[in-house]
């Protein structure tokens, strides 16, 4: 549609940037300075792990859930973590923010409220001390997962 709006008399070359690979055009080549910097970091071995964590942030969430909710016209609500209780989820707060319009939740409280659990288990291999990982699927008998 965009190309249909262009004037036929305009003799400028159009670069179709929508196909995804900028390497087709030499003007988009990464500068040698940037390439050398990346190589230096790789060779140093200092970039072979995650950077230091600043801790768990209250009201953390996976950004895709919020964006997808907004795109779908849904209200996205965030729950709090309680630093004074070793960053446990504020279950009373979750229950208080849930109402008749709540259709899905990322928490176990769903059983009590009778709504669906959305579980992102990407960190299933992460171990927190002596606490074993328990997948949300184990709770599928008491709440839809």
UniProtKB/TrEMBL annotation:
InterPro entries: PyrdxlP-dep_Trfase, PyrdxlP-dep_Trfase_major. One of its GO terms (cellular component) is cytosol. One of its GO terms (molecular function) is L-tyrosine-2-oxoglutarate transaminase activity. SUPFAM superfamilies: PLP-dependent transferases. GO terms for biological process: L-tyrosine catabolic process. It comes from the Eukaryota. This is Aminotransferase class I/classII domain-containing protein.
């Amino acid at each position: 549609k965009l190309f249909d709006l262009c004037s036929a008399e305009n003799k400028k070359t159009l670069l179709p940037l929508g196909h995804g690979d900028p390497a087709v055009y030499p003007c988009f080549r990464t500068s040698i300075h940037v390439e050398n910097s990346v190589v230096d970091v790789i060779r140093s071995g200092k970039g072979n792990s995650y950077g230091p964590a600043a801790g768990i942030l209250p009201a953390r969430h996976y950004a895709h859930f919020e964006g997808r909710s907004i795109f779908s016209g849904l209200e996205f609500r965030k729950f709090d973590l309680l630093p004074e209780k070793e960053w446990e989820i504020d279950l009373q707060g979750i229950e208080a923010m849930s109402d008749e319009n709540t259709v899905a939740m990322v928490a176990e409280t769903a059983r009590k409220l009778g709504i669906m659990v959305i579980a992102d288990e990407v960190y299933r291999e992460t171990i927190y001390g002596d606490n074993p990982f328990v997948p949300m699927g184990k709770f599928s008998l008491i709440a839809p997962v």
